[in-house]
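QA checklist item 7 of 12: single-chain prediction sanity check.
[x] sequence parsed
[x] length recorded as 363
[x] structure emitted
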Amino acid sequence: MTQKTISPDTFRNWLADGEELAVFDIRDPAAVGYASPLFATNLPAELVESEIGRFVPRTVVRTVLVDGGDGAAILLAENLGKAGWANVFALDGGIPAWTAKAEASLPTFDTPGVDFSLAVRDERNTPVISVEELKRLRDAGEDVVVIDTRTVAEFSRDHVPDAVSVPGAELLLRFKDVVPSDKTKVVVSCAGLPRAILGAQTLIDAKVANQVSYLHDGTKAWTGAGLELETGRTRVYGEASPAALDFAREHLQALSADDRFPEIDVATARKWANDPGRTTYLLDVRTPEEFEKNHLDGTLWSEGGQLLGVAYRTIAVRGARVVLIDDPLGVRARTVAHWLQRRGFEIAILLVDFSAQQLSAVA
């Protein structure tokens, strides 16, 4: 070991001590897969030096780089140290050393999305439907709509035929336009379980009148049943109508009835972001098109639906404050906050009128 490496035992202690900590799995994304076994931010080795500042706003944060046992993390930790990142360390032996003891349950950086969503399902008894049941409903001519809560890019790659793309954070905001009738059965789908369960439970918590369930194992189950998926941007949500906005405003009250988040102003957000003793993320959870058109300087766009199930892909520092930024209605921010608070994040809401006049006054 060198001064820039830590042992697996030290790493275990750091994961448990509750202090700010960033962890990066620097292996190739193909090797990392669905973030196992660390459930930490995947930042490939070749991008670490150029991209670390986007994920870790403060150079003093304890940061651990974990490689595949090839020593790449040590070299990167040394280079970053020379560049002013004094508290960056490599996990000695990388993933092979971390998994060598073959424990039944290794500690993780973040709660795996599947584990969290299954806990929600078991607590709330979220209704479920199988692929076979869905097919029977369709074959019988039932009024049923499938909503895919993944990103639009994922939806475009493949989805259950005739599904509509509405990423998780947009569900309540776009719902009335996608499902105009209270009699329509709603089935929420993703590639597997996490975003489907959380999407379905979001609508149930918001007390929509429709019968809502999630599709068990989503597209995976669809192909497992020998059925073909559809591809392309076939049916994607559009601009929210006045009726959809009114519906979202009404049902947001039900969704957020038991939630308690501070609502801050831009000046407070800036003060927090510049706090030398605490990390703060300023995350804009509107659509990518809205963010590109207008946003506050110093903020990051983060797909709200992704934050629901895989927050570690954006929030690399455990123990950081998270400010969710949205338009004045705040449906996306409050939907994301509804679930992130249950994952232990400290959340605040910043609502901004993104018209050019208002933005110039606060940016």
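[x] summary fact logged: The first strand starts at residue 5 and ends at 6.
[ ] second reviewer sign-off
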